[in-house]
Design goal:
The protein has a two-stranded antiparallel sheet with strand order 1-2. With 208 residues, it is mainly alpha-helical. The two termini are 29 Å apart. The chain has one domain: Arp2/3 complex 21 kDa subunit ARPC3 (Orthogonal Bundle), CATH 1.10.1760. α2 runs antiparallel to α3, α2 packs across α4 and α6 packs antiparallel against α7.
Amino acid sequence: MQNIAIIDRYVWAKYTFFRWRCSLALTKKLGLAFTMALLTGLMAQVKIFLPFSPVPITGQVFAVLMSGVICGGVFGSLSQVIYITLGIIGIPWFACSSQSSYLLTSPTAGYLIGFIVAPMLIGRYTDNYIGARKFLPQLKLMILGVGVIYIFGAINLALVMKLGLWETLAKGVVPFVIIDLIKAILAASASWAMLPQSSYNAETDREK
């Protein structure tokens, strides 16, 4: 009976958090977005530079993926806008360069654009569909988010460095696939564990 009570409290806590998040006033939603921006900045400090690529392996992708789940689509994207804006105005937390003037013309700028787009897709599907909160749908969404980041990142990398398709893939995509798949699995596992499997947002496929 005690185990059942613990499970019930856990389920109720998940539901309460997301119901609370959806009902927050604008200022508090901005505060939540700011918190995820800080987490992204902290995770950006986990980085490994590769000798053959200007793109490092970083921990920030995990925070980007989770921002869509925790903040929702719009405010998840806004959290990344905040992260990028604070970096441009002087906080030295970008993974690749501490020079804000260099950021917008750097080979890795496209990945930051992907950071803004990915949470929107993840958050909107997660909030709108109860069926999207199971592990496999969440994993698909996280992989989609990683794919979006790759697309924007690879296009910018190719344009800035004047690379062909295969060289772009070799420098900006292929070396990161396995580790980003691991991040996607971890993010999907975390989101599945925290997401309620019941309606909290008048979902499109809400329970009858």
